[in-house]
Design a protein that fits this description.
- The protein contains 11 helices and 6 strands.
- With about 400 residues, the chain is α/β, with parallel strands linked by helices.
- The chain has 2 domains: about 1-225, Up-down Bundle (Alpha-lytic protease prodomain-like), CATH 1.20.1510.10; about 230-390, Cation efflux protein, cytoplasmic domain (Alpha-Beta Plaits), CATH 3.30.70.1350.
Length: about 400
């Protein structure tokens, strides 16, 4: 409730998350809240860490400083990623958001490695940690602050589908675990002479490094071209098949140019015996409908499909039966027979998902293997078989 109150107070038209400016304002608000909370925690923990001579507390203080830098970079990233498209970047600057998140993860990783190094030195040369009740209470106060910041970032990240903010939320939750470890170190120092400060510092540094690596993976994946969300793929296919002239959908490819900047293309199988002008109009309407409802740029390629032919129907049934012997073949499409008499070509594509453990050699020979089986019954067919990968499978 409190989060919604903050959002409604600082973001105009906050429900319209598909608007680029509204989305940018969400990112700015989240970054500013991160700045405020982390600056407060940095000042508090650095002061306490120096006062009680705890490397673990100082380590987490500088982790908060890294989070301040992260908030600044995220803020700049949201501003730059919302720049309009230009001649050099016709699909906009949306991927800057991923680049800013990548820089943030690098900062977190470096900070973690540095404090592992410092903590290891503390293990080799242990120093006493001085317990102080006031300092202990202040650190306890930091935990709900980080919990709130984690929930705030995750909530907004989920609302606007921002991997950067979701990662920031997860990072803030990591801080809660880190602070809990620091409290453990202080409690041990209060009731014994055992020094675990360096070991806890290594644990803190290790968690920071792990957080940095996780953040880095989450931001590199979309830059490299990760598989699309299965729910989005399902929605696109379902909406396309609502068009009464589209009989099937295949070769769906989704290009991500940043949050809210997605281009999709796919092949739609359509009847061969309907006016090309009629089909073209229907396809245009479908492109517009999907674009408006999902906020995507859509391109549909038409594949005419011969239907009602007894020869094609019989051959298709036979091929379908043969393909059952190849469990890694997901589907086939663009099935057609061209030519006359004994000079006929049987043409179709088969689809093999990327997650199937099939050797490259098997894939190279797959078309010939299926062709030989078809020719056992239909020796007059010259089979042309193309092996496709399913780019939308996850």
């Amino acid at each position: 409730m409190f989060i919604k109150l903050i959002i409604s107070k600082f973001i105009k038209d906050f429900e319209n998350i598909n608007d680029k400016k509204v989305r940018e304002n969400y990112g700015i608000l989240s970054s500013i809240m991160g700045l405020i909370v982390n600056i407060i925690l940095f000042i508090i923990e650095l002061t306490i860490g120096i006062f009680i001579n705890s490397i673990a507390v100082i380590a987490d203080a500088f982790h908060n400083l890294a989070d301040v830098s992260a908030s600044i970079i995220t803020l700049i990233g949201f501003k730059l990623s919302n720049k309009p498209a230009d001649k050099e970047h016709p699909f906009g600057h949306g991927r800057i958001e991923y680049l800013s998140a990548l820089l943030v993860s690098a900062i977190v990783l470096i900070v973690g490695l540095e404090f592992i190094k410092t903590s290891f030195s503390r293990i080799l040369s242990p120093q006493a940690v001085h317990f102080n009740l006031v300092s202990f209470i202040i650190i306890l106060i930091a935990i709900p602050l980080k919990l709130w910041l984690s929930f705030f970032n995750k909530n907004i990240g989920k609302k606007i589908d921002s991997s950067a903010l979701k990662a920031s939320g997860a990072d803030a939750l990591n801080d809660v675990y880190i602070l809990s470890s620091v409290i453990l170190s202080l409690l041990v120092s209060a009731f014994s002479t055992i020094s675990i400060d360096g070991y806890v510092g290594i644990l803190v540094g290790g968690l920071i490094v792990w957080s940095g690596i996780s953040l880095m993976k989450d931001t590199i994946d979309p830059l490299l071209g990760q598989a699309p969300d299965p729910k989005l793929v399902k929605s696109i296919k379902k909406m396309a098949l609502k068009c009464d002239v589209i009989l099937g959908v295949h070769d769906l490819i989704i290009h991500n140019y940043g949050p809210g900047r997605t281009m999709i293309s796919f092949h739609a199988e359509v009847p061969y015996n309907i006016s090309i002008m009629t089909i073209h109009t229907k396809i245009d309407e479908t492109e517009k409908m999907i674009s408006e409802e999902l906020g995507l740029f859509v391109v549909i390629h038409m594949d005419p499909l011969l239907i009602g032919s007894p020869e094609v129907t019989e051959a298709k049934k036979y091929v379908s039966k043969i393909l059952k012997d190849f469990p890694y073949v997901q589907s086939f499409h663009d099935f057609r027979i061209v030519g006359d008499g004994d000079d006929k070509k049987l043409i179709f594509d088969i689809v093999v998902p990327f997650d199937e453990k099939v050797s490259e050699q098997t894939l190279e020979n797959l078309g010939d293997t299926i062709k030989n089986k078809i020719n056992e019954k239909h020796p007059n067919y010259d089979c042309v078989i193309t092996v496709d990968r399913d780019y939308s499978a996850t």
